[in-house]
Amino acid sequence: MNPRVLVVDDEERLARLIAQTLGRAGYECEVQGNGNDALAAAEVRRPDVVVTDCRMPGMDGLQLLRELRSRYPDLPVILVTAFADVPSAVSAMREGAFDYVAKPFDNEELRALVGRAVALVRLERENRYLRQEVGRRYSPDAMVAESRATRDLLELVQRVAPSKATVLVQGESGTGKELVARLLHYWSDRVGGPFVAVNCKAFAEGVLESELFGHEKGAFTGAAQIREGCFERATGGTLFLDEIGEVNLDFQAKLLRVLQDGEVLRVGGSKPRKADVRVVAATNRVLRDDVASGQFRDDLFFRLNVIPIQLTPLRERREDVLPLAEHFLARHIADTGRALSLSTESVDALAAHAWPGNVREIENVIERAVVLARGEKIAPEDLLLTETLAAPRGEIELAPSDGTLQEHLDRAATDRVEAALEAANGQRAEAARALGIDRTTLYRTMKRLGLA
């Protein structure tokens, strides 16, 4: 929809001129001749911007500004003023006016001014939406926490989040270490700052230092310009160091100095820079064992382990399994628009599964099942589970398979997608409809399976 502008002026000729000027730029304009009518019009259909004359009989532009500000604080108001009234317009800006334009005004100047106001409105709406989404996604009520262990974890994270203390999160792969780091960020007063995540294992030894600390121009071959590191980019926010147990001893010493001094030195630099960040580190290793074996510095371990958080594997909190499955199913249903539910047999299969991949495995299983399901009920064969819990000792029994579990699952998904594409003569939109997913999900699946 085109942005709506409410033009208010008791001089009909000037009001029509402003409306025509803005109309040529694609704005939808409504004209009112006084402040009271303008307020009534805004109540019926709220505009994106108001352009009003300063001097009008009855309610003048300044009074209209105050009324609009009290009712619609985010609504930008632009004042049109005679040159002699410029001081009044400047004063009005202190009361919240977006800007003013003096008569005789340039048409391009007015259009540019309204354009900036519309851009501001859109930005504020996007920010408001994102804040609501963050609040919805990361609110305590949005977390799946049926088990005692998970409820205790969330209670601990809520208590720890407001502090600046460094946190070390340990747990198996897939247990949700990054989610805990994000909760620590979004539940803290640093939520307005950046959240920067780095997988320390993903970078070669020589590259990790530059990635975290930054580098100066000419510091090494290929350093064509100055580059801020993650510590600087995370200033005022949270820096998440994943796979911290994989860094070598030499880099551990450099990281320790940054944590102790609160300053970073770029590669090739000579001047330390302040780094106001809250550090959350994570690992799937048992760092105390690595300290004992000499693979990890004890002083860095104690610097990171100010507040330790240990995540419980899913097999030890099985009350969370089905709620997590329903949670991820609801998310994918919202993405695809399919009316899907778990069959009784699927519920039993999920409850009996060993979940060696923890929460990440549940999410992948449900996403795959949404793609593979032929009807409205997800059947056990759609889940492609090949492991179950053995009773009563809880040991894992593996069904015979050719290759790894992931290879087996990917082959089944590949066969189903290829069959749908063949039946649709290569038409992806038609294949997606047959699979009960949207084209974006199909393309993402094809890309992951190497079919795109």
Give the CATH level 1 class of the largest domain: Alpha Beta
Mean pLDDT: 86
Work out the count of structural domains.
3
Low-confidence stretches: 388-401
Instruction: Tell me roughly what share of residues is in helical segments.
Output: 40-55%
Outline the biggest β-sheet: 5 strands, parallel
**CATH-derived topology of the largest domain:** Rossmann fold
The neighbouring-strand order within the major sheet is 2-1-3-4-5
Just name the CATH architecture of the largest domain: 3-Layer(aba) Sandwich
Q: What is the number of E strands?
A: 18
The rounded distance between the terminal residues' Cα atoms is 35 Å
Q: Using only CA atoms, what is the Rg?
A: 30 Å
Structural class: alpha/beta
Can you identify the CATH superfamily of the largest domain?
Answer: P-loop containing nucleotide triphosphate hydrolases
Described by the principal axes of the CA atoms, the overall outline is: globular
Describe this structure in words.
- By secondary structure, the protein is of the alpha/beta class.
- The protein folds into three domains: 4-131, Rossmann fold (3-Layer(aba) Sandwich); 147-312, Rossmann fold (3-Layer(aba) Sandwich), CATH 3.40.50; 316-449, Helicase, Ruva Protein, domain 3.
- The protein has 19 helices and 18 strands.
- The protein has helices spanning 12-23, 35-44, 61-71, 86-94, 107-138, 148-160, 177-186, 205-213, 230-233, 249-261, 287-293, 298-304, 321-336, 344-352, 358-372, 380-383, 405-423, 428-435, 439-449; strands spanning 4-8, 28-32, 49-53, 77-81, 99-102, 167-170, 195-199, 214-215, 227-228, 238-242, 263-264, 273-274, 278-283, 307-310, 341-342, 377-378, 387-389, 396-398.
- β17 (387-389) and β18 form a beta hairpin.
- The longest helix is centred in the first third of the chain and has 32 residues, at 107-138.
